[in-house]
């Protein structure tokens, strides 16, 4: 559990667990801090994937199935008998969604709410038709990373820092490319939980509406000022936590 999950604020008596999935190349520290922003009724658990932080010596995951299998194997005992919700930004939107679908299909479990951020639905047409980012050469890949934003200038301008930063990012992008190109929208929505899409108003256009086709539950879209990493802005981060907290209050009253 401790290897996969980073939990700065352990609250075993919390009514709800919020599991946060990292963006491509990301670690667990950003979301682990969120535990201090929620009250005692919420325990925030940040997912730490192989190849980063305390797992830096482990090989990167090769497929979405590999990520899902580890997450479910470790978390399944924690998901039974207690309300839980998922949040994922960018690459994390896809890993959280894919994990939620597998949980429902195989175990009959489902998050009370799925929050996805900064990402089109996996069956969005332009995702399938665009060039694979994982097939770009190093120069083109770095140019794309720079255009997305959110990467500190001290990393982009430091060759040694880039050697540490790029490998986990490329590994996750390969998983993403393969996942979206193999994903076929099911005939009926695979989820029934409510789903909220967050996005930055200045980010590249995302097909957020298509996410509604993947759940039969309530659906809404909420945008905040900023680009792809709008959530790193302290004001937006506070707004996100406030928004999520309101949903969790409703979830807890419905669950108990």
Strand-helix topology:
Blueprint: E1 5-6, E2 16-21, H1 29-32, E3 42-47, H2 64-79, E4 83-89, H3 91-107, E5 113-117, H4 125-129, H5 138-148, H6 153-156, H7 159-182, E6 194-200, E7 219-224, H8 234-255
Parallel strand pairs: 2-3, 2-4, 4-5, 5-6, 6-7
Antiparallel strand pairs: 1-3
Describe this structure in words.
By secondary structure, the chain is an alpha/beta fold. The protein has a single domain, classed as Alpha/Beta hydrolase fold, catalytic domain (Rossmann fold). The protein contains eight helices and seven strands. Helix 2 crosses helix 3. It holds the Pfam family Thioesterase.
Report the major sheet: 7 strands, mixed
For the record, give the distance between the C-alpha atoms at the N and C termini, rounded to a whole number.
26 Å
Determine the CATH superfamily. Answer: Alpha/Beta hydrolase fold, catalytic domain
Helix and strand composition category: alpha/beta
**Which CATH architecture?**
3-Layer(aba) Sandwich
CATH class: Alpha Beta
Rg, Å, rounded: 17 Å
Shape: globular
For the record, the count of structural domains works out to 1
């Amino acid at each position: 559990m401790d290897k996969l999950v980073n939990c700065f604020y352990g609250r075993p008596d919390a009514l709800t667990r919020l599991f946060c999935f990292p963006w491509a190349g990301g670690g667990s520290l950003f979301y682990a801090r969120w535990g201090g922003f929620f009250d005692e009724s919420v325990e925030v658990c940040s997912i730490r994937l192989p190849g980063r932080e305390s797992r830096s010596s482990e090989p990167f995951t090769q497929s979405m199935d590999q990520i899902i299998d580890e997450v479910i194997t470790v978390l399944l005992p924690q998901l039974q008998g207690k309300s839980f919700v998922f949040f994922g930004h960018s690459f994390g939107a896809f890993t959280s969604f894919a994990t939620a679908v597998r949980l429902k299909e195989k175990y009959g479990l489902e998050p009370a709410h799925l929050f996805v951020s900064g990402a089109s639905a996996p069956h969005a047409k332009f995702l399938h038709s665009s060039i694979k980012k994982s097939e770009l050469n190093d120069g083109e890949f770095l140019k794309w990373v720079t255009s997305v934003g959110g990467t500190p200038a001290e990393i982009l301008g430091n060759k040694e820092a880039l050697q540490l930063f790029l490998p986990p990012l490329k590994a996750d992008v390969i998983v993403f490319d393969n996942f979206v190109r193999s994903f076929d929208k099911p005939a009926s929505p695979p989820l029934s939980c409510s789903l909220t899409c967050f996005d930055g108003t200045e980010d590249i256009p995302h097909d957020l509406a298509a996410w509604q086709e993947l759940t039969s539950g309530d659906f809404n879209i909420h945008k905040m000022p900023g680009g792809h990493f709008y959530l790193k802005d302290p004001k937006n981060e506070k707004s996100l936590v406030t928004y999520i907290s309101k949903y969790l209050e409703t979830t807890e009253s419905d669950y108990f």
